[in-house]
Amino acid sequence: MAGGADPLRALLRAANALLQQRRYRAALAVIKGFRNGAVYGAKIRAPHALVMTFLFKSGSLREKLKSIAQATYAHSRNLAYFVFTYKGLMAAQSWLQGKKIPFHSFFAACIGGWLVFGDNNPINSQIVMYLLSRILFGLSRLAVEKGYIPQPKQDPFPLVAALVWGTVLWLFEYHRQTLQPSLQSSMTYLYEDSEVWHDLSDFLVYNKRTDSK
Fold it and tell me: In the record, which residues are listed under signal peptide (predicted)?
């Protein structure tokens, strides 16, 4: 047993020594970025897919579990590929120009976004829309910090909330096809299914009756 463990300890020591080498730091950061992207993507998507699948999708248990696994894999893979691409391009640009400049981040992320998230599918669409909402908030705050727009005298969030909810419900009621499918499903459950019932079972216990009464 002890003899078999020695090569493993030697391998671990060699790996740890390699990780301390500054010359390989950029390449190792790209690899760890790939790892972190895969893990984070799985952590984010798995619970979301689990809830959304069992709330809104029909089918057998096997089909639902397969759908959850596929969504989790796609999110994890895409985020891993993106982080790998982004950090790789950042390292390459910094090496070519001898320093890091702000444009490097924008350019690397644009290329990564085009290559990894350019396919218009439900997973990529959700991720891009998630980022878009946060970008709008971030740019608004940046504009205030830089003095491009004056500091609001009152918190603008109540007005933003009113406009967002007013717009999304108007779209749902009159232009539903423009909304993302998962949002349509959520709003159908909240605002349309709540208008249909037959007895106490599908009024309080279930959303919809499953029998033929």
Answer: none
